[in-house]
Amino acid sequence: MGYPKLTALVAVLTLMLGSSQAQLNPFFYTFTCPQLPFVVLNVVSQALQTDDRAAAKLIRLHFHDCFVNGCDGSVLLEDVPGVIDSELNAPPNNGIQGLDIVDNIKAAVESACPGVVSCADILALSAQVSVVLSGGPAWVVPLGRKDSRRANRTAAANLPSPFETLDVLKAKFAALGLGSTDLVTLSGAHTFGRSRCLFFTGRFDNFNNTGLPDPTLDAAYREQLRQACTTPGTRVSFDPITPDTFDKNYYINLQNHKGLLQSDQELFSTPGADTTAIVNTFAASQLLFFIQFGNSMIKMGNLSPPPGIPSEVRLNCRKVNPPTVLHDVI
Ligand code: HEM
Ligand SMILES: *[C@@H]1O[C@H](CO)[C@@H](O)[C@H](O)[C@H]1NC(C)=O
Ligand SMILES: *[C@@H]1O[C@H](CO)[C@@H](O)[C@H](O)[C@H]1NC(C)=O
Questions:
Q1: If you take atom 1 of ligand 3, which residue's CA is the nearest one?
Q2: What pLDDT does 327 receive?
Q3: Cβ–Cβ under 8 Å, residues 65 and 143
Q4: Is 148 helix (H, G, I), strand (E, B) or coil?
Q5: Catalytic annotation, residues
Q6: Could you report the per-residue pLDDT of 8-25, keeping only the tens digit for each?
Q7: Nearest bound ligand to CA 167?
Q8: I want to staple 77 with a disulfide (CB 3.0 to 4.6 A). Which of 36, 38, 151, 218 is the partner?
Q9: Is 207 exposed, middle or buried, given 0-12, 13-18 or 19+ CB atoms closer than 10 A?
Q10: Are 254 and 277 in contact (CB under 8 A)?
């Protein structure tokens, strides 16, 4: 009689111990690093005092981390020839910034609770704190990720591109279990931060070899952008109304044909797409957007690495631990 229960218990325990990040939970550091949320909040708010884009940089890092082999801090690893083929060298990560801010958060966290908190969790928490400090919603962040001892530049090269059609973007999200609602919701992070001109000047003339501008880009806005784009590397705000605030203006911009990237505007302007109605819903209700944003961020944050990849709590977010440091190596 007792055996089936015992077998079940053993199976559950095996599952929990056998995998490096079996089940994330918000209380993971409650006893080992109770001050963690405050430490992160403190450093991110300091960073925002000198860098308007600090919050945008941090959430984008979490996105690029999670989309490549799960949220495992792999995006932060620097190149080590023959050992680590850094994801930072993949074209989609070419403009990524904020590693210096992550270093500062990590330093503060290490001094509060040495060797306990993973860099992947620091990214997840920083993303949430960044949104809150920019006027957006709070959500409860599941924790307990480990840091990978591997990077995958090939996979990073396949991150979503601003030049892809909606079908391709949807397929890339769907491959990770993220649906149209998640795509529209998470793209809402383009309510703050900047994009370099090189990602959208192709919309101004001869768009997609049509000989004409992108018809889904408002003509007056197009000329404003053309003026702003003095060099391909010039950075322009995603949201011209409230550039550094986390709000629903992104969706209102899309309705007004003022999406900055082709991939933004497609969510609203692709004929017959299921994403148009979702844009309209969020443009009409900041509350619905905020609630769904937390849900979709948790879903993205739950993406986990394939089993069997060696992991640890990295001491320096940019490097795997030296062999002598045995923090949680499996
Ligand atoms: C749908 C697919 C997506 C595409 C094609 C895309 C593309 C881009 C591009 C091209 C940039 C400008 C990069 C540069 O100038 O170097 C950018 C910036 C940014 N992205 Fe995305 N993105 C996508 C989804 C997301 C998601 C899911 C998030 C977060 C949840 C996000 C957050 C950001 C933020 C905050 C910035 C501004 C960063 C800064 O100011 O440094 N993006 N994105
Ligand atoms: C890296 O990612 C690619 C594409 O997702 C995959 O095919 C390959 O197996 C991965 N390589 C490693 C070493 O994990
Ligand atoms: C660009 O052109 C290609 C080929 O004609 C087409 O399949 C694609 O949908 C076009 N993209 C956009 C955004 O119009």
A1: 208
A2: 55
A3: no
A4: strand
A5: 64
A6: 443 443 344 434 456 899
A7: 3
A8: 151
A9: middle
A10: no
